[in-house]
Write a structure and sequence with these properties.
The protein has 59 residues and is largely without helices or strands. It is built from 1 helix and 2 strands; from the N terminus they run ββα. The radius of gyration is 15 Å and the shape is elongated.
Amino acid sequence: MPRQKRKSDLPSKPCATCGRPFTWRKKWERDWENVRHCSERCRRSRGTASPDPASPGKR
């Protein structure tokens, strides 16, 4: 039986909404390259974050 990996050995990346780092999860195994948000809450609130002043937008 293989040994378990430590959480520190798993890949991580920053959340696209909040910027906090999050680590790989088993349920994201097949789709890790496309995972951009650390949680469902961040995914839902991605459009309500403060807008970038350099990007054009509605006034």
